[in-house]
Design a protein that fits this description.
heterodimer, A: 316 residues, alpha/beta, Rossmann fold, 2 domains, seven-stranded parallel sheet, five-stranded parallel sheet, 11 helices, globular, B: 330 residues, NAD (chain A), NAD binding (chain A), Hydroxyphenylpyruvate reductase-like protein (chain A)
C-alpha cells in the first residue's frame, strides 16, 4: 500500500495508525482539521486520496464522494453503514467494507450490562458508597432483572447474541424484525409498538436505515410504559431523542441505558441528574481486543483491495 | 343437655412466640404478627440477659433480621427451649452453626430466594468493571466526551476465564449467566460437583486463580474460607485479574486487597460486601478500576417478598412439626 492516500475521518486506534504508516500509507487526518475547514481539506488533497477509513460518526457522504475522484474503497471502522452513501458508492464502483462479527459479543455484553446497571442501580450504589452516605441511611430497593421480558428490535447477529445472554437470566425473549425468524422460542411481534407493549426491557439492536429512523417514537415509548426500560446499543437516530428525554424526566419510562445519541458527542444534559439513566459514550465495541480486531479487518480489506485480492468483508 | 366442648376454639389459641432481638417495621412485621406473638427484646428497657431470663425461657424460635447480632454459645445458653433460629439472610456466618447443632437447634436461611438477584448483580458488577461503565457514565456527565479527553478502552467480557469460588446456588447461577457471555467456567469448592461436569474443578483457590482472569466469590464465610483470597491468590490472578465479591467481605484479606489494587497486582474489583460494613476502605473511592456497592445484591422487591414468605413458611413448618423449607446444614 505504498504511498496510498488514506483519508481517516476519526482519531484511530494507535495500532491502526502505526500499521498504516508501516505499510507506507499517506494518512490524511481529517479529525485534526476544524469542522468548518474539512471540506476544503478534502478538496485540497483529493488527487491523492484513494481510500477512506470511516466510522459511526463520519463515513463517506455524497459530498465527500463527489469531491474524491480517485476514491476506490471505503473501509468502515464499524458494522453500521448509515454514514456511507451506499447508492453513490455503487454508482461510482467504489468498494465498501465494514467490521461485522468481531464486535457482536462486545455490543451484546454491553447491552445486558447496561440493563443490569440501570435496573439494579449499580452506578447509584457506587456514588452512594463513595459519598460516605452508607453509614447514615439504609438502601433503597432496585428492580430485578432476571425473569423480566426482554424485547429486541432487530434479530440480527447482535440481537441474537443479546437474546442468548438474556435467556441465561430466564428472561422470556420477544422481537420485532422485518420478517419472522426461525426461532420458535422467541415471540415475534409484527410492530415495534406491539413489542414494547409486551416487554419490560426493550433493546435496540437493528441497523439504522430510512425505515428504522425514529423507530422508537412517542407511541413506542408510551407502549413500553412507566415500568419499561430502554437500552440503545444501535444508533442514536433510532430514537426520537427529545421524546425519550421528556419521558424519562416525567417518569413515563422506568429507565434507560444509552450508548448512542442522535448528535454525538452531545448528550441531553436533562438526563444527567436521573438515577435511572446510564449514559456511556458509544463504547459498544470499546474494548482493546475488539477494536484491534476491527483494525485488523480494516487493514485486511485495504490490503486485499490494493493487491487485487478478494475483500474480506465487502458490502458493496 | 350437651356438655360444652372443651376443645379450644382455634381463634383463641395462643400464637406461637417468636423472639426478636432487633427492630422490625412495616408489612413484614404485620405479616409476622398475624401468625406469631412477637417477643421484642429490643423494645424492652431491661438489659438483654435479664429480659431473656425473665421472658424467654420457653421461647422456641428466634428470628434474626440482620447480621448485627451474633448467635453464639452464650446467647444459646440463655434460651434453653430454643429449637429454631430463622435467619433472613443467605449467609449465616453470624450464627455459630456448631453451637446450634450441639444444642439441637436448627437454623434456616434465605435458601435460594436471593440467588437470581445476587447472580445478576455479580454479572452487572463484572461488566461494569471490565467495560468501565461507571467510569464512562462519569466521563459523559463531566462533559469530557465533548473535549479532547479519551476514555480508556475497556476489556472484553466474552471469553474471559471465570473462576467461581463456591459453586453453590449463587455460584452456579453466576456460571450459567457468564457461560452465555462466552466465558469458560471453572470453580473451587470443598469437593467436585457431579451436577456440573462441564465446569473444570480446581482443588485449590490458588490454582483456580492461576488459570483464570476473573474470580467471583460466592461461598459462605466460615473458618476455612476466612481470608481465602490472600496476597498469593491475588498475585496468581495477575495484573489484569478482576475480583467480584458478592459473598462476605471477610472472604478477602481486605487491607491486602487495597494494597494489591494500589500496586496493580490485580486489575480491578467489583465489591458488594466489606469486612466492617458500612465502613469501606477510603483508598478504594478514587480507584477507577473498582466498583463499590452497599451490600445491595439482594435489594429487589421480589427478593424481599420472597424471603419474608420463606421465613414465615419455615416458622409455620417448625411449629407444626413439618419439614423445614431451607434448613442450613452445618
Amino acid at each position: 500500500m505504498d504511498n496510498v492516500g488514506v483519508l481517516v475521518t476519526h482519531k484511530p486506534l494507535p495500532y491502526l495508525e502505526q500499521e498504516l504508516v508501516q505499510r507506507g500509507c499517506r494518512i490524511f487526518r481529517l479529525w485534526e482539521v476544524p469542522e468548518s475547514n474539512r471540506f476544503e481539506f478534502i478538496q485540497k488533497n483529493s488527487a491523492n486520496i484513494r481510500a477512506i477509513i470511516g466510522n459511526s460518526r463520519l463515513g463517506a457522504n455524497a459530498a465527500m464522494i463527489d469531491a474524491l475522484p480517485k476514491l476506490e474503497i471505503v473501509t468502515s471502522f464499524s458494522v453500521g453503514l448509515d454514514k456511507i452513501d451506499l447508492v453513490k458508492c455503487k454508482e461510482r464502483g467504489i468498494r465498501v467494507t465494514n467490521t461485522p462479527d468481531v464486535l457482536t459479543d462486545d455490543t451484546a455484553d454491553l447491552a445486558i450490562g447496561l440493563a443490569i446497571c440501570v435496573m439494579r442501580r449499580i452506578l447509584s450504589a457506587h456514588k452512594y458508597v463513595r459519598s460516605g452516605a452508607w453509614k447514615k441511611a439504609p438502601y433503597t430497593l432496585s428492580t430485578k432483572f432476571s425473569g423480566k421480558r426482554v424485547g429486541i428490535l432487530g434479530l440480527g447477529r447482535i440481537g441474537l447474541a443479546i437474546a442468548k445472554r438474556a435467556e441465561a437470566f430466564n428472561c422470556p425473549i420477544s422481537y420485532y424484525s422485518r420478517s419472522e425468524k426461525p426461532y420458535p422460542n422467541y415471540t415475534y411481534y409484527p410492530t415495534p409498538a406491539d413489542l414494547a407493549t409486551n416487554c419490560d426491557v426493550l433493546v435496540i439492536a437493528c441497523a439504522l436505515t430510512e425505515k428504522t429512523r425514529h423507530i422508537v417514537d412517542r407511541t413506542v415509548i408510551d407502549a413500553l410504559g412507566p415500568k419499561g426500560v430502554l437500552i440503545n446499543v444501535g444508533r442514536g437516530s433510532h430514537v426520537d431523542e427529545p421524546e425519550l428525554v421528556a419521558a424519562l424526566v416525567e417518569g413515563r419510562l422506568a429507565g434507560a441505558g444509552l450508548d448512542v445519541y442522535e448528535n454525538e458527542p452531545h448528550v441531553p444534559k436533562e438526563l444527567f441528574g436521573l438515577k435511572n439513566v446510564v449514559h456511556v459514550p458509544h463504547v459498544g465495541s470499546g474494548t482493546i481486543e475488539t477494536r484491534t480486531a476491527m483494525a485488523d479487518l480494516v487493514l485486511g480489506n485495504l490490503e486485499a483491495h490494493f493487491l487485487n485480492k478478494p475483500l474480506w468483508t465487502p458490502i458493496v | 343437655m350437651a356438655m360444652p366442648s372443651l376443645e379450644l376454639d382455634s381463634r383463641y389459641e395462643e400464637k406461637p412466640k417468636l423472639l426478636l432481638l432487633q427492630p422490625i417495621n412495616g408489612p413484614f412485621k404485620t405479616a409476622l404478627s398475624q401468625k406469631f406473638e412477637l417477643v421484642k427484646a429490643d423494645e424492652s428497657p431491661l438489659p438483654l440477659p435479664t429480659f431473656l431470663s425473665t421472658h424467654c425461657l420457653q421461647i422456641k424460635a428466634l428470628f434474626i433480621l440482620a447480621p448485627t447480632v451474633t448467635v453464639d454459645s452464650s446467647l444459646l445458653d440463655q434460651l434453653p427451649s430454643l429449637g429454631l433460629v430463622a435467619a433472613i439472610s443467605a449467609g449465616v456466618d453470624h450464627i455459630h452453626l456448631d453451637a446450634c447443632r450441639k444444642r439441637g437447634v436448627v437454623v434456616t436461611n434465605a435458601g435460594e430466594t436471593f440467588t437470581p438477584d445476587v447472580a445478576d448483580f455479580a454479572v452487572g458488577l463484572l461488566v461494569d468493571v471490565l467495560r468501565k461503565v461507571t467510569m464512562a457514565d462519569r466521563f459523559v456527565k463531566n462533559g469530557l466526551w465533548m473535549g479532547k479527553g479519551d476514555l480508556p478502552l475497556g476489556s472484553r467480557v466474552s471469553g474471559k476465564r471465570v473462576g467461581i469460588v463456591g459453586l453453590g446456588s449463587i455460584g452456579s447461577h453466576v456460571a450459567k449467566r457468564l457461560m452465555a457471555f462466552g466465558c469458560p467456567i471453572s470453580y473451587f469448592s470443598r469437593a467436585p460437583k457431579p451436577n456440573f461436569p462441564s465446569y473444570r474443578y480446581f482443588s485449590s483457590v490458588l490454582d483456580l486463580a492461576c488459570e483464570n482472569d476473573v474470580l467471583v466469590l460466592s461461598c459462605a464465610l466460615t473458618a476455612e474460607t476466612h481470608n481465602i483470597i490472600n496476597r498469593d491468590v491475588m498475585v496468581a490472578l495477575g495484573k489484569d485479574g478482576i475480583i467480584i465479591n458478592v459473598g462476605r467481605g471477610a472472604l478477602i484479606d481486605e487491607p491486602e486487597l487495597v494494597r494489591c489494587l494500589k500496586e496493580g497486582v490485580i486489575g480491578g474489583a467489583g465489591l458488594d460486601v466489606f469486612v466492617n460494613e458500612p465502613d469501606v476502605p477510603k483508598e478504594l473511592f478514587q480507584m477507577e478500576n473498582v466498583v463499590l456497592s452497599d451490600h445491595r445484591a439482594v435489594t429487589t422487591p421480589e427478593s424481599f417478598k420472597g424471603v419474608s414468605e420463606l421465613v414465615i413458611a419455615n416458622l409455620d413448618a417448625f411449629f407444626s412439626g413439618k419439614p423445614l423449607l431451607s434448613p442450613v446444614s452445618s
